[in-house]
Design brief:
alpha/beta, 3-stranded antiparallel β-sheet, binds S-adenosylmethionine, 7-stranded mixed β-sheet, Rossmann fold
């Protein structure tokens, strides 16, 4: 995938080098070195945003995060929360939550500097000063007990093996009244199903312009979807059905609410409370 040129708004990536019109954006000094597994994350960010733009279900997951957060913290304009988005990618969920909680400290935790560059442009464009990009993978992050009010993890948990241990770390890191919003790809990626879905939507007039604009990127999008599916079949990424997903969350000690399949049926979603935390929580 290196050597590709992609453009997103005023940002372009050519041969792995990112540049942006009107302004310099410093990349963080992080040294995160996370194996890419099937997907080449360095060039995936713009593809993620194109796919998100064609997928109403992606934005439904953003809306449901905001709904859960507003329900938990109705005084959103004043709430001084600590919020962490794990595997935050190009910042779509981070931007949305930071907008609703302008006084919160929002950490965008993401190991890939190219993803972070795209995210940084969104935070800058939105004038969001309360978001901190931490260029780190999950395991290198300094997880403190009961330090976070909201933890978000969208389509990254499947990579964070062993998931039972990852989930326990997240549960311990939540404050007692906090919650964990999780969406996770569970089913094997089927590139052709995605493309039928995009086409059917376009024919119905949903995102038709974006669909046409996306056509030159299809070879890259198909290739990454196929790589993702292959990585799942090889067993390097966790796959699950909805029931197993819920049971895994409960086994980690979470109280699970709103468990459901989502994201065109490929993923599962839940809002989780940390439950009763005991002194035995440390493995
Ligand atoms: C499919 S993307 C999801 C991005 C974002 N959450 C969203 O839904 O738009 C998965 C993200 O997880 C990140 N990731 C991969 N390994 C990770 C790790 N060990 N710790 C934290 N993030 C990781 C990747 O760099 C990538 O940005």
């Amino acid at each position: 995938m290196r050597g590709a040129e992609v453009t997103l708004n005023k940002t372009s990536i050519t041969n792995g080098v990112i540049s942006r019109e009107n302004g310099e954006y410093e990349l963080s000094n992080g040294t995160a070195d996370v194996p890419a597994h099937g997907i080449e994350w360095d060039t995936y960010g713009p593809l993620l945003d194109i796919q998100a733009g064609l997928t109403p279900d992606y934005w439904e997951n953003v809306d449901l995060l905001i709904e859960a957060a507003r329900k938990a913290y109705p005084d959103s304009a004043e709430a001084e929360l600590r919020i962490c988005d794990i595997g935050a990618g190009t910042g779509n969920f981070t931007t949305a939550i930071a907008e609703v909680f302008p006084r919160a400290e929002v950490v965008h935790l993401e190991p890939n500097k190219h993803m972070n560059f795209l995210a940084r442009t969104k935070f800058a464009d939105a004038g969001q000063k309360n978001v901190h990009i931490v260029e780190s993978d999950f395991n290198s992050f300094d997880w403190q007990d009961q330090a976070w009010d909201i933890i978000i993890c969208v389509n990254a948990l499947y990579m964070l093996a062993p998931q039972a241990q990852t989930l326990q770390t997240i549960r311990r890191a939540l404050r007692p009244n906090g919650f964990f919003y999780v969406v996770d790809f569970g089913r094997e990626q089927d590139a052709s199903q995605w493309f039928w879905y995009f086409l059917k939507n376009a024919l119905k007039g949903i995102n038709t312009k974006k669909y046409i604009q996306s056509i030159p990127k299809w070879p890259q999008m198909l290739a990454s979807a196929r790589e993702g599916g292959k990585t799942q079949v090889e067993g390097a990424w966790w796959t699950h059905e909805t029931q197993e997903f819920g049971e895994t969350l409960e086994t980690a000690g979470f109280e699970v609410d709103g468990l459901t399949a989502c994201y065109c049926g490929f993923a599962d979603r839940a809002v989780c409370r940390p439950g009763t935390q005991t002194g035995d929580d440390h493995p």
